[in-house]
From TrEMBL, chain A:
Name this protein carries in UniProt: 2Fe-2S iron-sulfur cluster binding domain-containing protein
Keyword line: Iron, Metal-binding, Oxidoreductase
The organism's place on the tree of life at top rank: Bacteria
Taxonomic source organism: Fibrella forsythiae
Domain 2Fe-2S ferredoxin-type residue range list: 82-158
Coiled-coil region(s): none
From TrEMBL, chain B:
The entry's keywords: Molybdenum, Oxidoreductase
Tree of life domain: Bacteria
Coiled coil regions, renumbered to chain: none
Record-annotated Aldehyde oxidase/xanthine dehydrogenase a/b hammerhead domain positions: 22-127
Name this polypeptide is given: Xanthine dehydrogenase family protein molybdopterin-binding subunit
Cross-referenced InterPro entries: Ald_Oxase/Xan_DH_a/b, Ald_Oxase/Xan_DH_a/b_sf, Ald_Oxase/xanthine_DH-like, AldOxase/xan_DH_MoCoBD1, AldOxase/xan_DH_MoCoBD2, AldOxase/xan_DH_Mopterin-bd_sf
PANTHER family recorded: ALDEHYDE OXIDASE 1-RELATED, XANTHINE DEHYDROGENASE
Organism: Fibrella forsythiae
Automatic annotation (TrEMBL), chain C:
Pfam family, one: FAD_binding_5
Signal peptide as annotated in the record: none
UniProt keyword list: FAD, Flavoprotein
Keyword Flavoprotein: yes
InterPro entries: CO_DH_flav_C (IPR005107), CO_DH_flav_C_dom_sf (IPR036683), Diverse_Substr_Oxidored (IPR051312), FAD-bd_PCMH (IPR016166), FAD-bd_PCMH-like_sf (IPR036318), FAD-bd_PCMH_sub1 (IPR016167), FAD-bd_PCMH_sub2 (IPR016169), Mopterin_DH_FAD-bd (IPR002346)
Stated name of the protein: Xanthine dehydrogenase family protein subunit M
Ranges of residues in domain FAD-binding PCMH-type: 1-227
The keyword Membrane belongs to this UniProt entry's keyword annotation: no
Organism expressing this protein natively: Fibrella forsythiae
Length: 265, 708, 334
């Protein structure tokens, strides 16, 4: 790589950089980053970033996303079996389940869709949130038996494609950009919740912090306070709430939310 | 200083981010292991006594049940093998409510859970020791040497003659870690070797404690933990569930999955103990501290002891000639307490920094000024120079950024609508250590492209390990990030420090950097050539046309670091709004200013700090585990009863890092941020509540009932 | 969770028939509380009749009968849909606020209106099967009476049970004098006044409501209301959201100038049922809405409270919350 390139970046490069790390652009332009550094950073940008992360992700004990293959095989002993046919992430699935089996356990233990998480199994944390017939619900308190004929969308069904050609859902992208997670365990539930929440705002649904519920307006542009309340059914023990709110706001408002990383000499 | 040409120091998004936002990151229970059986634990329903009879016959006959294991048929395990908290099914003795007393293994989770409700137990019940308030006066000196009375000068004498003093007792409740991922294990035997998919902050520690407990060799145990769904100390030392899964799998001769339920988390994997802390401060009229006594009373488990070091901040925060720090402990019938985020410092700083605020109020002095006035030039506990200390800068920078000048010195004066507004400040600190860590770096050349794989048994529990190590290696090897793969979370990899006590980043990054420097050195030597300017490893791979090369480093902390006292420091600023009718508190704004040495990634570092702040806000306002003093059970056994903060509890969060170049602590100047983020937070909130309302609450959490 | 037979009902008559004569069978609607309790082994049905697909979800204006001009809400409609329906938002904003104060977005999407009324207490002694609890297992005693009772009742409790009923929605329904419409297997319908729907514990704390075995909640009727302009649901809790109430107050007022012509006050988190503050209401009707009058009424109401060891704060909190809720209903959020 050439050390002597001029510091100025082309407009295309600026645009690329802005997409990746808008908060850094001015800083970078002011201090005159050299092109070599820029190229190193750019190896992260756009598809490069996704490819890199996906490539790493594939190696890091990630799970392939469950496909309708042998998963329909029922375990040896199903009690009070119920036949259920429903759609999961666009694919028709038919299974015989124990009447006691929750949607969450069905996804995780039978369909190899382990993205939805069991944080409490009692409707008190939101980690199992999935989108059922277009509504966010808790899969831990939903019986699989009651899902006959319904449509389920899980975290695995939000992104398009896989590997180096993955196209994330805008909410997934915003969570990545704003670091809306740390350990990542609550993240699938947070993201499913946020995706559905954006539709709820489009419809004009109210929340407990809505100043006047008699005033109906749709679509709504949600304040941070509204986002906080509407995302409160998803606990994050790592404490990424501020970043989650920024991510949701970015997608809900349809414009970038600034990220600031502050240093003092 | 941050080098503009380096990848370290830039806010890149998490390397493991894609896996996490797409649901592909595999946590302990996510592995697609074939032919799984499911285990569910069942627990004692008394807090002290002996199991006289345990009837498992109904459960054994229940559909799908493969085995029921209790103390009557469990294999012999080494109870001193290094697992915490007992509960290994080795005896009929019951030492706390909710001790594991058996496991059901069945074909399906539904069957195992149901059968676990079909066990009947006769107990010889004893009166449990669970009422801390009653037991506290009988507390005794802890067994650990570092908890002996530590005295400098004569604090009691200085206190008795002081012109100004504060002598108050502060109380913090039992708290639980409650990572969103409950502790869970999949155990899979292959001959005499067992693989344990199990979230582990200390990968090698989990391996050796599991092996020792199972009476097998460490190399017969493999821990796999690439993703950890939060830990906060509870997944540092491991607990019985790890090995119980292994013996269940052995017994049924199949892989077994065992996940604790959320309700079982309260008495399975440790807790932060309840503390009563008496803090006495003496000062001259102009605010110079003359004495600081910090006297702590706490509890441990009935037969084993853990005492969190609540006096640590008091040892080093302020320049005071007379100091006394004491610990007393009483055994109780509860699960063994353990390290919990900011162990000792988060709770200890609540007491110390509340007392400082009380003293400032008595002296009619600004609490920032009081702290600056007592800034120590060297570590008062051992006389060593600081490796770096930016405590004053943290306060000053924070005051300016937060708008401290808008604070009304007189409490209860800032009413806006129905809300009393208050500002609070508190300082904090956490020690910076590097621990021995090995790392392997493997280089591979394909045509003109060089890629690197970094391997070490490190852990990433959301802390950003993958990301910062990728950045570190890319810089050291002069490779783009895309050409570096970091592999961690597996005990088959070179041994590494745990992701505990804020040692992770310093230990791992220094080891990876050392390994990358070493491989560069070796490649240069191997070439037999001389260079004017040091070439990079990738240049050497290309110019020497090497296809594959690897090396290993066993990195050790700097010996010279011993001469210094190395700590991170912070200052926390809170603005609260207290509803004057209901006493509900809202933290409108929070700012943490932190001096923690080199910041490898501002994005993940900021998240760590504000995450610690959220923990501190929970500690201040909502979190409390309550024992029934008659029965010894937790009445706060679910997320509906134990209130970790929700999204709406958290207002605007802001973080500022003070630039620090501290190569005395370790080569890369990394001081750690995971723990310091919670230290001082609860006090800042409590002090803000005092400023808002004039009410000094010395008992956490500050729930609405305490403010009306 | 014990094994159970699962059946799905397609219409109310079938559902009622499927449940008929089976004391150990239960309706499954949203499942948010029932499945939770089944996992804890507190609820142990041998059969579940899934009624979540029944068409009892309509929200409409009542066009005849005593409540003409009011609104009827289907028993199996979801909480979210009730809260956001234009008729409810316009005419019963108190109900919208109360529903939205409860649980989370996800749970409100699942929970049904009828099911909400049948929520069981969150008392930790009820939830943990090894603990004494007369509600769960009559005759075993009350764990909370002399145990940890910070969250428990200050009104209407008995030595047998000091639990509180957790619903927010129901507190608003109590204030709005709602009527619960139920149907039995014979197809007979009856209307239960909201005040008579839930019970005080007395000697039979295991019976939460006056719903007869096998009855199905088909609708909740709201009489016409003039309280929409000045209404507020205040919820005080240990954290800002997604938590049960320490105490809550639903208020609605009708004013003539500064004079109160009609007032309703109901409290949650204080008793085994939504607690109508009738003493305070009586004192306020016809009075001017001054802070002094409001305070006097609140104090009079709370004077009858009988707190337990750990919940004495609820008496003072109740007074303050009544005052704040009325103030907010009159003047808006401050």
């Amino acid at each position: 790589m050439d050390e002597n390139e001029v510091p100025e970046l082309s407009d295309d490069e600026k645009k690329l950089f802005e997409d990746l790390m808008p908060e850094d652009l001015n800083d970078i332009l002011d201090t005159g980053v050299n092109r070599r550094h820029f190229l190193k950073l750019m190896s992260l940008a756009g598809s490069g970033l996704l490819a890199a992360q996906s490539a790493v992700a594939e190696q890091l004990f990630t799970k392939p996303i469950g496909l309708p293959t042998s998963a329909e095989l029922a375990p040896a002993s199903v009690e009070n079996g119920v036949n259920v046919a429903f759609k999961v992430n666009g694919a028709a699935r038919k299974l015989l389940v124990d009447s006691r089996m929750t949607l969450l356990d069905t996804l995780r233990e039978r369909l190899e869709l382990t993205g939805s998480k069991k944080g409490c199994d009692h409707g008190q944390c939101g980690a199992c949130t999935v989108i059922l017939n277009g509504q966010r619900v808790l899969s831990c308190l939903t019986l699989a038996a009651s899902c006959e004929g319904k449509t389920v969308q899980t975290i695995e069904g939000l992104a398009q494609g896989s590997g180096s050609t993955v196209r994330l859902h805008p909410v997934q992208e915003a969570f990545l950009k704003h670091d809306g997670f740390q350990c990542g365990f609550c993240t699938p539930g947070q993201i499913c919740s946020a995706v559905a929440l954006i539709d709820e705002a489009k419809r004009g649904d109210a929340s407990y912090v809505t100043a006047d519920v008699r005033k109906k307006a749709a679509p709504l542009q949600l304040s941070t306070e509204e986002i906080r309340e509407r995302m409160s059914g998803n606990l994050c023990r790592c404490g990424a709430y501020a970043n989650i709110v920024a991510a949701v706001q970015e997608v809900q408002h349809g414009k970038p939310v600034e990220q600031t990383f502050r240093f003092s000499a | 200083m941050q080098d503009k040409n380096k990848l370290t120091g830039t806010p890149i998004s998490r390397i493991d981010g894609i896996a996490k936002v797409t649901g592909k990151a595999a946590y302990s229970t996510d592995y697609p292991v074939k032919d799984l059986a499911y285990a569910v634990l069942f627990k004692s329903t008394i807090a002290a006594g002996t199991i006289l009879n345990i009837d498992t016959s109904v459960a054994e006959k229940a559909p799908g049940v493969l085995a029921v294991i209790t103390h009557k048929n469990a294999p012999k395990l080494n109870v001193n093998g290094g697992l915490r908290g007992g509960s290994l099914l080795q005896s009929p003795e019951v030492e706390f409510f909710g001790q594991h007393i058996g496991i059901v293994v069945a074909e399906t989770f539904e069957q195992a859970r149901h059968a676990s409700h079909l066990i009947s137990v006769d107990y010889d019940k004893k009166e449990p020791k669970v009422d801390f308030e009653t037991l506290a006066p009988n507390a005794v000196l802890p067994k650990e040497k570092d908890k002996a009375d530590a005295s400098r000068g004569d604090a009691k004498a200085a206190l008795s003659s002081a012109a100004y003093k504060v002598e108050e007792t502060y109380s913090t409740p039992i708290e639980h870690h409650h990572p969103l991922e409950p502790h869970a294990t999949i155990a899979e035997w292959n001959g005499d070797r067992v693989t344990l998919y199990n979230s582990s902050q200390i990968v090698n520690g989990a391996q050796t404690s599991a092996a020792n407990t199972l009476n097998i060799k460490p190399e017969q145990v493999r821990i796999v933990t690439p993703y950890i769904g939060g830990g906060f100390g509870s997944k540092g030392g491991q607990w019985a569930n790890l090995v119980l899964t292994a013996i269940a799998a052995k017994q049924v001769n199949r892989p077994v999955k065992l996940a604790l339920t959320r309700q079982q988390m309260v008495n399975s994997v440790g807790l932060r103990q309840q503390n009563l802390q008496k803090v006495s401060l003496a000062a001259t009229q102009d605010g110079k501290l003359t004495a600081l006594a910090h006297e702590i009373t706490t509890h441990a488990a009935i037969k084993s002891e853990f005492v969190e070091p609540c006096g640590d901040c008091s040892k080093i925060m302020y320049d005071v000639p007379n100091s006394l720090i004491t610990y007393r402990v009483v055994p109780m019938n509860v699960i063994l307490p353990t390290y919990t985020r900011g162990p000792g410092k988060s709770t200890g700083s609540f007491a110390l920094e509340s007392a400082m605020d009380e003293l400032a109020h008595k002296l009619k002095m600004d609490p920032i000024e009081l702290r600056i006035k007592n800034e120590p030039a060297r570590d008062p506990s051992n006389g060593k120079p600081w490796s770096s200390r930016k405590a004053v800068e943290c306060l000053q920078v924070g005051a300016k950024a937060f708008g401290w000048e808008k604070r009304k010195a007189e409490p209860g004066q800032n009413l806006q609508g129905n809300y009393l507004i208050g500002y609070g400040v508190a300082a904090g600190t956490y020690p910076a250590h590097q621990r021995p860590t090995s790392a392997v770096v493997k280089l591979k050349r394909t045509g003109n492209e060089v890629t690197a794989t970094i391997e070490l048994a490190a852990a990433d529990l959301g802390t950003g390990t993958y990301t910062i190590l990728t950045q570190t290696a890319a810089d050291a090897l002069d490779l783009p990030l895309t050409n570096v793969t970091v592999v961690i979370g597996d005990s088959d990899l070179p041994p590494a420090a745990g992701a505990v006590g804020s040692v992770g980043a310093a230990s791992y990054a220094n080891a990876v950097n050392d390994a990358c420097q070493k491989i560069t050195d070796e490649l240069i030597t191997r070439s037999g050539k001389q260079f004017f300017a040091r070439p990079t490893a990738s240049q050497m791979m290309l110019s020497e046309k090497i296809t594959e090369y690897k090396t290993r480093v066993d990195a050790k902390p700097l010996e010279s670091a011993e001469a210094y006292s190395a700590h991170s420091f912070n200052a926390n600023f809170a603005e609260v709004a207290v509803n004057r009718f209901t006493g509900m508190v809202r933290v409108n704004r929070f700012l943490a200013v932190t001096g923690a040495g080199t910041i490898l990634n501002p994005k993940t570092a900021r998240s760590q700090i504000i995450g610690g702040n959220v923990w501190g806000i929970g500690m201040a306002l909502t979190e409390e585990s309550i024992l029934d003093p008659r029965l010894g059970n937790f009445v706060t056994r679910s997320f509906a009863d134990y209130h970790v903060p929700s999204n709406l509890d958290i207002g605007d969060m802001d973080a500022i890092f003070i630039r620090e170049d501290d190569q005395k602590a370790n080569k890369m100047g990394i001081k750690g941020i995971g723990e310091v983020g919670i230290v001082g937070v609860a006090a800042a909130v409590a002090n803000a509540i005092f400023n808002a309302t004039g009410k000094r609450v010395r008992e956490l959490p500050i729930t609405p009932d305490k403010l009306i | 969770m014990r094994p159970f037979v699962y059946n799905r009902a397609s219409d109310p008559t079938t559902a009622l028939n499927m449940l008929s004569g089976k004391p150990n069978a239960k309706f499954l609607a949203g499942g948010t509380n029932l499945l939770d309790l089944m996992k804890e082994d507190v609820e142990r049905p041998a059969e579940l009749v899934d009624i979540s697909g029944l068409a009892l979800t309509t929200i409409k204006t009542i066009t005849s009968g005593p409540n003409q001009g009011g609104v009827s809400i289907g028993g199996l409609g979801k909480n979210t849909d009730a809260a956001n329906h234009p008729l409810i938002r316009q005419q019963y904003p108190l109900l919208t606020q109360a529903i939205l104060a409860g649980a989370s977005g996800q749970i409100r999407n699942m929970a049904t209106n009828g099911g909400n009324l049948l929520q069981r207490t969150r008392c930790p002694y009820f939830y943990e099967v090894s603990m004494p609890c007369n509600k769960r297992e009559p005759g075993t005693g009350c764990g909370a009476l002399e145990g940890i009772n910070r969250l428990h009742a200050i009104f209407g409790w008995s030595e047998k049970c000091v639990a509180v009923y957790p619903s927010d929605m129901a507190v608003a329904l109590a204030a709005l004098d709602a009527i619960v419409k139920v149907r039995n297997v014979g197809g007979q319908e009856r209307a239960i006044a909201f005040a008579d729907f839930h019970r005080l514990p007395g000697d039979t704390p295991h019976q939460d409501t006056n719903l007869a075995p096998g009855e199905l909640i088909t609708a909740i009727e709201l009489p016409p209301s003039k309280l929409a302009d000045k209404a507020y649901y205040l919820k005080v809790r240990d954290r800002a959201s997604y938590a049960f109430a320490l105490l809550s107050v639903a208020v609605g007022l009708e004013m003539a100038g500064n004079r109160i012509t009609q007032v309703r006050i109901a409290m949650g988190g204080v008793a085994h049922k939504p607690w109508r503050a009738l003493t305070a209401e009586k004192m306020l009707v016809g009075k001017e809405a001054t802070e002094a009058n409001v305070r006097l009424a609140a104090e009079a109401e709370m004077a009858a409270a009988k707190p337990l060891e750990h919940n004495k704060f609820k008496v003072e909190l109740g007074k303050r919350s009544i005052v704040l809720a009325l103030q907010t209903a009159l003047n808006g959020v401050g």
